[in-house]
Amino acid sequence: MQKINIQQSFPQDWIRMFTHLANLFFEEAKIEIEDMDDAIQVVFNVKQADGTWSGESTLQWKGNTYHSSFVEKEENGDDKQRNRQLKRVYSHLFLDSLEQATGMEQAWGILTGIRPTKLYHKYRKEGFSEADTKKLLMKQHRISQEKVDLLAKIVDVQLGAIPDLHDLKNEVSLYIGIPFCPTKCAYCTFPAYAIHRKNGRVESFLDGLHEEIREIGKWLKDRDINITTIYFGGGTPTSIEADEMDALYQTMYDSFPHMTEVREVTVEAGRPDTITPEKIEVLKKWGIDRISVNPQSYTDETLKAIGRHHTVQETIDKFWLSRTMGMRNINMDLIIGLPNEGLDEFKHSLNETEKMQPESLTIHTLSFKRASEMTRNKNKYRVADRSTVEQMMKRGEQWTAANGYVPYYLYRQKNILGNLENVGYAKPGEESLYNILIMEEVQTIIGIGCGASSKFMDPVTERITQFQNPKDPAAYILTFEEYIEQKIEHLERIFPNRPVVTEKI
User: Fold this and answer.
1) 113 inside domain
2) Are 341 and 432 contained in the same domain?
């Protein structure tokens, strides 16, 4: 743990800000106001005069001293805006000092949030040109030219895929979570429980899920609210049996309004060991042809190490089974930085992917999520260093461009290797609309099922309220009716004037 002594008193939310920035440079950092032995010492001097914020900082570490300065014109606004700008000034000084001291450059600058593209959209909606938006991101947030250009490209693709992206506030999308997997991967913190049929847990969960779909569907149908996209996630939605999938899609079509107008329905079949001809026939029956078949890696030893009980060959076989049986839009995921993998292993994964040419490919960077098995037993897993993961990401960018893919969504996570990003690539016209909508937070996403997170966005204020269903199937079974009522209360609040539609006799 790296100790950092900031010789000035700050509120707790500021301490969190400094900690997030410090963690970009050190595996774990501890910020303290009081003196600590062997700590990095930081002193700030920030002042306001003549409509300008100006600041200086001094950082001392290992016998060396580093000086930083930053000047920015004062922005007009309320106390909240003033506090936001002041935080930005301190962030610039702190980041610059740490970059000097460590020799590490942060391509994402002072950004520690997960949605850089949302910030790009914000500036464009405020009337800034593309050139001015790029300048703002580089000046105010210290984002590199390379990353700013990537954001611009992604936003352009998003608006091509969904031209009315910013006009969908009065529609909703749905996330339906099924919390079962054959096994739980070592890096995973999603609601994912090894599926078994003891004590009727799966059947009881599905009974609750059907009821939740019916009740939320009734509310939407009664108010004639359109659904933009539907996404079945988890866990692995194809962990349940084919007849259970069939019944679930029947309830979906019976319950939700205007299903023929829904732009996209996706089912994650991420674990190849759950895919069968019978389940693909069910998907085809309901017109669902967008699925994921996720290898993560094309090295069998890696799959064993991370707890995925399938082989590379099974991934390949299930991809071609899905393709030959009519799955038109297949996504695949690869993860950079998995245990014992370097650039050679990642090149091999890309070479294997090239033989299949899925419609979309998401390249994730490994993140040590707090509740994952991999984080709890970090010493057990040897992962690539920062330089190697950067090379792997660069190779992924080159490979996707050479194979006709374009980047269409991006998000970041805390504790992500190399302070990099996760990028979704797609063949032009094959982008996942749901992935764009969930990342850009432009409409309400209703979470249904175990561990499903809802984001209720007020169409007027655009304020977002989050709501989480229970993660554990046993808790969900006991409380789903209560959670249905609470979600409907949220919906009533953000759509207060939608009249109830009565059927004509």
Assistant:
1) no
2) yes
- Both 299 and 391 in a single domain? yes
Cα separation, 72 vs 98, in Å, equals 20
Helices 386-402 and 343-356, axial angle in degrees (round to 10): 20
For residue range 140-189, what is the model confidence (pLDDT) as tens digits? Answer: 999 999 999 999 999 999 999 999 999 999 999 999 999 887 665 555 55
Q: Is residue 427 part of a domain?
A: yes
Given a contact cutoff of 8 angstroms between Cβ atoms, the answer to whether 292 and 330 are in contact is yes
Average pLDDT, the chain: 90
Total of domains in the chain? 2
DSSP state letter for 447: E
* 254 contacts 220 by C-beta, under 8 angstroms: no
Give me the mean pLDDT over the 107-127 stretch: 93
> What CA–CA distance (Å, rounded) separates 216 from 274?
28
176 and 322 share a domain?
A: yes
- The residue segments making up the domain with residue 431 are 162-494
Domain boundary among 59, 75, 105: 105
Tell me if 306 sits within 8 A of 300, measured CB to CB. no
Structure tokens at 43: 């002193």
* pTM of the predicted protein model: 0.91
Choosing from 88, 105, 122, the residue where a domain stops is 105
Q: Are 169 and 84 contained in the same domain?
A: no
| Per-residue buried b or exposed e for 144-176, using 16+ beta carbons within 10 Å of the residue's own CB | eeebbebbbebbebbeebbeebeebeebbbbbb
Q: What confidence tens digit (pLDDT) does each residue in 436-469 have? A: 999 999 999 999 999 899 999 999 999 999 999 9
CATH, residue 82: 3.30.160
Are 367 and 269 found together in one domain?
Answer: yes
Residue 56 is assigned to a structural domain of this protein: yes
Strands, sheet with 422-426, edge to edge from the N-terminal-most edge strand: 406-411, 422-426, 360-365, 329-336, 290-292, 264-268, 227-234, 172-178, 444-449, 453-457, 464-468
CA–CA separation, 211 and 208 (whole Å):
5
Q: Please indicate, yes or no, if residue 438 is contained in any of the structural domains.
A: yes
Q: Can you say whether residue 458 is alpha, beta or left, with left for phi > 0 and alpha for psi between -120 and 50 degrees?
A: beta
Mean pLDDT of 264-293: 94
pLDDT at 369 over 50: no
Q: Nearest 5°: CA angle at 272, between 194 and 181?
A: 15
Position 235 scores a pLDDT of 83
